[in-house]
Amino acid sequence: MNTIIELHNLSKVYNPKTIPVYAVNGVDLQIEEGEFTALVGPSGSGKTTLLNLIGGLDYPSGGEVKIEGVDITKMNENKLIDFRLKNIGFVFQAYNLIPVLTARENVEFVMLMQKKPKIERDKLVADLLTEVGLSDKRDSRPSELSGGQQQRVAVARALASKPRFILADEPTANLDSKSATNLLEIMAKLNKEDHMTFLFSTHDQRVIDKARRIVTLVDGKVISDTKNQPH
Amino acid sequence: MMLLKIAWRNIWRNKMRSIVVLSSVAIGLFAGMFMIAFFQGLMKQEVDNAIETQLSHIQVHNPVFPEDKEVGALIENGSGLLEKFKQDPAVKAASGRVITTGMISCASTAAGVEIHGIVVSDEKNISSVTVDLTEGSYFSRGGKNEIVIGKKLAGKLAVQLHSKIVLTIQTKSGDLTAGSFRVAGLFRSRNSSFDETTVFTKQDDLAQLLGTGKEIHEIALLLKDGKQADPIAASYKKQYPSLLVQTWSEIEPEMAMLTGLMDQMMYIIIGIILLALMFGIINTMLMAVLERQREFGMLMAIGMNKVRVFFMVLLESFMLTCIGLPAGILLTIVFVRYFASRGIDLSAFSEALSQLGFSSIVYPELQQSMFLPITLMTALSAILSAIYPALKALQFKPAVAIHKI
Ligand SMILES: Nc1ncnc2c1ncn2[C@@H]1O[C@H](COP(=O)(O)OP(=O)(O)OP(=O)(O)O)[C@@H](O)[C@H]1O
Ligand SMILES: [Mg+2]
User: Fold this and answer.
1) Out of A83, B143, B352, B402, which residue is the most buried by the measure of CB atoms under 10 Å away?
2) Does the CB atom of residue A45 touch ligand 1 within 6 A?
């Protein structure tokens, strides 16, 4: 198995000069290709911060973030944007989609930025929307979709760039339990069939249950890292 | 491209705001253009008016004449020269004038005036005074010793049509002489000070009093193309080195200067309008950008680079400008057309303007050549003012933007 994500003694301190907050405090972690990992922990334990660091959305105060051996903490902002476009898929808790674009256009957008040819775009967009069960909603704008549907479009969009892995920060937080389960099932299926690596944070026990690995964070530190048999 | 699509749809996301930007571009352009049309119309009218009233495009004198208006400062072989000018294909009309200063008096009062002895048939081709009569006629009865004076002067002297007045002047040989004239007509030009100080007699009558014979002091030339005054005057200067050849702008440098001053004022006003426009756009676009902070953060998170973000914001302003400009041009054309035929009535300020020699009804006139520079200036200001909001959008940190809920 390939190691995709490698964290070494990673830390992030907010307000270092006034009242320092050690949001992430010396985390060592490896994520292998094909894993389906849940990041759990109480509110304020540093889940979002950790995901931001892994995704290159923020710079750490110390330590390394290696993506397939490349330390992204050394990249400048422009390089990071490009790196994210090529390697990382994101699903946020909310506001994932461009409101003025339809579901289809939202998914296509990342591929356009990657300068993929039209034939390839059209095919993949259709496939992905079918996979998340939204082919009939392809011409709807985000405002015309339910929260769960929006999150499924976001998953399709995250996949469209053919990333090495997908980071999802509380993707189900705004969803009812049925939509949450549905979203997780889609993610699990993509993980199983396409071997897409997922790392997602969550509070939701039903979502945690679907994970195959559970990393627990408290006060910015990993306190447990266990395998799980999804059910 | 997708960016175009996004920018276009973003415009319609907040219709009110877009309409504000769009209409400020349109109105900014319109205001600038209309201002120019107004001032250009005003100045052209002013110049045309002066040229038509008395000035003409080119005047020829004995070099010493303009200073003291001395009776002896005649144009050598003036009548021959006048005939020659009349034959010149560039000249539309020419008129020779005998001019002197003197005193006009009636029973009760007197006033200093400039007396122009003119040949009616020639002067009719060159001066609008000949038709701007409020009462009487321009020497049409053919009587001897008739005089046409300004209505204003008539009021000052308390004389009426057919009243008798006396002109007192100095002859060529230096003696004082007086002639009795009957008021044949009252004129009213747009320039009230001209009306108060200039009177007209037939050339023969004045020449007889002055003892100047067939000689003249001034040849006024109206050209077929007034814009050619400078080069034509230059060639006459070469041709007649012993004479003083002047264009209207040389004779009335104040007026030429006023035209220049108006131009400057115009640019200052346009500058102010554009500045206001820029602040308006900066403000609205900044609001549009700040409102979408989370969206920009998300876009950068999923890999939209800064160049694209920058252009997306710029594109929105650009599109609004592209709609606003034609609207502004249309507005300008419609309004300028309308007022060009109807005129803008400034009679509320008319007395003051008339004192300055301005007409009370202004017909705006827009030179085609002004469209492009003003349109470009407006477009440029609109685009420039989108740069700051666009740069602002680049400063959003994806992580921070996403955090904000
Ligand atoms: N921009 C920031 N400036 C200062 N402190 C911050 C900032 N972002 C997060 N923190 C602090 O860092 C700590 C970790 O926050 P983080 O958002 O990573 O936690 P979390 O596990 O995602 O919590 P939740 O489950 O509520 O989303 C918290 O104490 C938080 O207050
Ligand atoms: Mg969080």
Assistant:
1) B402
2) yes
On whether any CB of chain A is under 8 Å from the CB of B89, the answer is no
Q: Do residues B28 and B67 share a domain? A: no
Q: Which atom of ligand 1 is nearest to the CA of A15?
A: 4
What is the complex's ipTM, to 2 decimals? 0.93
Q: What angle do CA A70, A74, A77 make, to 5 degrees?
A: 110
Residue B58 lies in a domain: no
Residue B143 lies in a domain: yes
* A93 Cβ neighbours under 8 A, 6+ residues apart: A169, A170, A171, A173, A174, B405
**Contact flag B303-A82 (C-beta cutoff 8 Å):** yes
B238-287 pLDDT, tens per residue?
Answer: 999 999 999 988 888 888 888 788 878 888 888 888 888 888 889 888 98
Which ligand minimizes its atom distance to the CA of A24? Answer: 1
Compute how many other C-beta atoms are within 10 angstroms of the C-beta atom of residue A186: 17
- Residue B56: strand, helix, or coil: coil
Please give the residue range of the domain that contains residue B84: 63-242
pTM of the model: 0.76
Amino acid symbol at B308 = R
Shared-domain flag, residues B165 and B186? yes
Domain boundary among B217, B242, B267: B242
- CB contact under 8 Å between A48 and B403, yes or no, is yes
Looking at the DSSP assignment, which residues form a beta bridge with residue B186? B135, B149
Q: What is the largest CA-CA distance in chain B?
A: 102
